[in-house]
């Protein structure tokens, strides 16, 4: 599937009608979502025939993009039942099988690393400090292959240092810098739309290092 085709399909998905500010619910736009998954598949082979988890899946954009690119199995995790309901409708619309689990990511218990790749657009941590790092910490415990995540460019040094020193990542690489369009969703937003600079990261968990004989 070509990038433009993927972006077009994702652009037709239903998004939040009444987003919850306490969960920092912002839709992942088709431009960013398509590039994240397209890069994961075409540069690294981390999607096709893999088990992919979408952390904080919201309306399912990233996970469904993984399904469109040939993931073997996709699981969306979100704390919000309404988001999962929308994501399920989106999956039906695209005729994709995607499982959903309602849970708090911080309390996730997945011990056997059955998930190959985690994709996520975590909360930026502006409402609840450290929320983005809670997601990253869990993703690196769960994934056996790679973690793809979006984080504010202003946090780049902190993200890299923490991932390598505290979260046992064997590598942490910024693949590209993108513009995240934050639409005027909440009353406190003064502008119609704001562009936020975000980094597209690829992290490799430490268990993926080759063993020395």
TrEMBL record:
GO molecular function, one term: nucleic acid binding
Domain of life: Eukaryota
Any coiled-coil regions, as ranges: none
Stretches assigned to the Methyltransferase small domain: 48-129
Pfam families named in the record: MTS
Alphabetized PANTHER family for the sequence: RRNA N6-ADENOSINE-METHYLTRANSFERASE METTL5
Family label: Belongs to the methyltransferase superfamily. PrmA family.
Protein name, entry field: Methyltransferase-like protein 5
Annotated organism of origin: Sesamum indicum
């Amino acid at each position: 599937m070509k990038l433009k085709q993927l972006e077009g399909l994702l652009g037709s998905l239903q998004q939040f009608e009444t987003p919850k500010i306490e969960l920092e619910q912002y839709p992942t736009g088709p431009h960013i979502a398509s590039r994240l998954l397209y890069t994961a598949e075409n540069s690294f082979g981390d999607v096709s025939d893999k088990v992919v988890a979408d952390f904080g899946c919201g309306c399912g954009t990233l996970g469904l993009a993984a399904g469109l690119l040939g993931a073997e199995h996709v699981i969306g995790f979100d704390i919000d039942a309404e988001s999962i309901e929308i994501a399920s409708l989106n999956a039906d619309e695209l005729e994709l099988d995607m499982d959903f689990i309602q849970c708090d990511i911080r309390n996730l218990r997945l011990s056997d690393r059955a998930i190959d790749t985690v994709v996520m657009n975590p909360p930026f941590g502006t409402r609840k400090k450290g929320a983005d790092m809670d997601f990253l910490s869990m993703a690196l415990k769960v994934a056996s292959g790679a973690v793809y995540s979006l984080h504010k460019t202003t946090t780049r040094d902190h993200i890299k240092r923490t991932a390598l020193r505290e979260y046992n990542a064997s590598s942490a690489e910024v693949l590209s810098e993108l513009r995240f369009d934050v639409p005027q969703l909440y009353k406190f937003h003064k502008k119609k739309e704001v562009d936020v600079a975000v980094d597209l990261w690829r992290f490799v968990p430490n268990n993926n290092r080759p063993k020395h004989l």
